């Protein structure tokens, strides 16, 4: 494989432990949300980390898609990712809702842009066919 970049993060202690990147730029305590039986402590959780990564990556993909479609994104454009954890038989599964906010774009252009970004975003490519992803604009 010819990687452009490789991120390395080590988890210790599972959902109630820590995650630390090899360059120490990421160093978080984890807590288990009350909704899945945890103490809802002050740390983050894997679903929040996934949502943060997906939202940021998708925002970047929107920039690529906007340039290709010759659309202008304003600096206050946003993407909100909501990652749900659910039971699926004996396993657990994720689903994602991505909501874009694009001041100055029509609803039709904004939704077309979301679909174009979904076609190229690495998170979208990685989850395609395995994770339900709902796209919307506000």
Write a structural description.
There is one protein chain. The protein is of the alpha+beta class and 138 residues long. It folds into 2 domains: 1-44, N-terminal domain of TfIIb (Single Sheet), CATH 2.20.25.10; 46-137, 2-Layer Sandwich (GMP Synthetase, Chain A, domain 3), CATH 3.30.300.20. Helices cover 31% and strands 28% of the residues. It has helices at residues 46-68, 107-120, 122-127, and strands at 9-12, 18-21, 27-29, 78-88, 91-101, 132-137. It has a 3-stranded antiparallel beta sheet with strand order 1-2-3, with no helix packed on it. The protein has a 3-stranded mixed beta sheet with strand order 4-5-6. A hairpin with a 5-residue loop joins strand 1 and strand 2 (18-21). Helix 1 packs across helix 2 (107-120). The longest helix has 23 residues, at 46-68. It is globular, with a radius of gyration of 17 Å. The mean pLDDT is 96. This is Ohr family peroxiredoxin. Belongs to the OsmC/Ohr family.
The CATH class designation of the largest domain is Alpha Beta
* Helicity, as a percent range: 25-40%
What name is given to the CATH topology of the largest domain? Answer: GMP Synthetase, Chain A, domain 3
Q: Which sequence of strands runs across the widest sheet?
A: 1-2-3
Structural class category: alpha+beta
Main β sheet profile: 3 strands, antiparallel
Mean pLDDT: 96
Looking at this structure, what is the CATH superfamily of the largest domain?
A: K homology (KH) domain
The low-pLDDT segments are: none
Shape: globular
Secondary-structure element pattern, one letter each = EEEHEEHHE
Radius of gyration: 17 Å
Number of distinct beta strands: 6
Number of domains: 2
Distance between the termini: 38 Å
Discrete helix count: 3
| Beta-strand percent range | 25-35%
CATH architecture name of the largest domain? 2-Layer Sandwich
């Amino acid at each position: 494989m010819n990687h452009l970049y490789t991120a390395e993060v080590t988890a210790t202690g599972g959902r109630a432990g820590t995650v630390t990147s090899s360059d120490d730029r990421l160093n978080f305590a984890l807590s288990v949300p009350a909704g899945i039986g945890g103490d809802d402590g002050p740390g983050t959780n894997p679903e929040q980390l996934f949502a943060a990564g997906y939202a940021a990556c998708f925002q970047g993909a929107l920039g690529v898609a906007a340039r290709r479609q010759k659309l202008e994104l304003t600096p206050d454009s946003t993407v909100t990712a909501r990652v749900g954890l659910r039971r699926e038989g004996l396993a657990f599964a994720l689903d994602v809702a991505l909501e874009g906010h694009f001041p100055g774009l029509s609803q039709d252009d904004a939704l077309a842009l979301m679909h174009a970004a979904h076609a190229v975003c690495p998170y979208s490519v990685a989850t395609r066919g395995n994770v339900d992803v709902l796209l919307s604009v506000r």
